[in-house]
Amino acid sequence: MKKTALAVVLLLFLIPFASAEDSDGDGYENPTENFTIWDGADAFPNNPDIHDPVFSTGCDPPVATLDLGEPVIFTCTIGNEGPIGVDVYIELGEHSNLINQFKAENLSINSNQIVEFQVKVSGLSEGVATAKLSIYARANGSASHTIDLPIEVTGEEWAGLSSQSNVGGNPDISFINRALDDTSAWLSDNTPWQFSRMNAGLVVLLIGLGLIASIRKYRARKMWIQNMEKKTESDRQTEARFDQIRRADTHQHHIEPTIPESPKFIIKSKK
Ligand SMILES: [Ca+2]
């Protein structure tokens, strides 16, 4: 009986900690480890006037004009204006005038932190398009924030595209560009320098050439050593003998007194 009473008292003590808290009394629970802002918790637990996460955003360039097939990379920033860290999901809406080359991504943004990301699109057909970047901070809900990327696509074919597709129609080299983009991002992150795709391409090329050269050198050296080991003493003697005969031959040939004069005569008679 005493044990049961103790358990009840303990339970009563624990209930306030287990149940949800709403510090500002706006009807939205304070975020916890198990109930985050993503799940619907109050992004501003101490402000009764606001409960949804607030973001400040910007993209560079603010507008873009593209030829057909021309890509543009927008560098965008997103800042969390709230007092608590949030997880967001970012995606780019499809547009009939544009090729969407942005892979939707998840970002964790601390309070007052500004995170940078890149958005790539290419011109597909002539027209004025607004690419819409949506930022979701709630699991069940519409976008918390959208960024408009105004883009004009001209009717001209991009010069960079035609130079790439001169040979054999339209080769898909986008995987190379992606690999180089990844490489340049990696190099920029892991070295003190900023690398563009072109820089990354040069680095990859140089490393590749260096590797090929050193592999060739190594193989040539290995072959040479193997051949030298194979050569027995008798081989070398035979070779030396042939060498001597060859040298003797050419020497004798120069002073060979029995070469007939006839060729001269034949050439003369043809004239
Ligand atoms: Ca609030």
CATH class of the domain at 55-165: Mainly Beta
Please report which band the strand proportion falls in: under 5%, 5-15%, 15-25%, 25-35%, 35-45% or over 45%.
Answer: 25-35%
Which fold name corresponds to the CATH topology of the domain at 55-165?
Immunoglobulin-like
Reported for the largest beta sheet, the result is: 5 strands, mixed
* Euclidean distance between termini CA atoms: 140 Å
Q: What share of the residues lie within helices?
A: 25-40%
- The number of helical runs is 6
Which secondary-structure class do the elements indicate?
alpha+beta
Shape: elongated
Please list the strands of the largest sheet in the order they lie side by side: 2-9-8-4-6
Radius of gyration: 38 Å
Question: Order of helices and strands, N to C?
Answer: HEEEEEEEEEHHHHH
Which key terms come to mind for this protein?
single chain, 271 residues, alpha+beta, Immunoglobulin-like, five-stranded mixed beta sheet, 6 helices, 9 strands, binds calcium ion
Question: Quick gist of this model?
Answer:
The protein has helices at residues 2-18, 159-164, 174-190, 197-230, 233-254, 262-270, and strands at 55-60, 64-68, 71-80, 86-92, 98-100, 105-109, 114-123, 127-136, 145-157. The protein is of the alpha+beta class and 271 residues long. The longest helix has 34 residues, at 197-230.
Describe this structure in words.
Among the domains are: 55-165, Immunoglobulin-like; 172-248. The strands form 2 sheets. Strands 2-9-8-4-6 form a 5-stranded mixed beta sheet. The chain has helices at residues 2-18, 159-164, 174-190, 197-230, 233-254, 262-270, and strands at 55-60, 64-68, 71-80, 86-92, 98-100, 105-109, 114-123, 127-136, 145-157. Helices cover 39% and strands 25% of the residues. The chain is built from 6 helices and 9 strands. The mean pLDDT is 82. The termini are far apart. Helix 3 (174-190) packs across helix 4. It is an alpha+beta fold and 271 residues long. Calcium ion binds at residues 24, 26, 28, 42, 44-45, 47-48, 50-51.
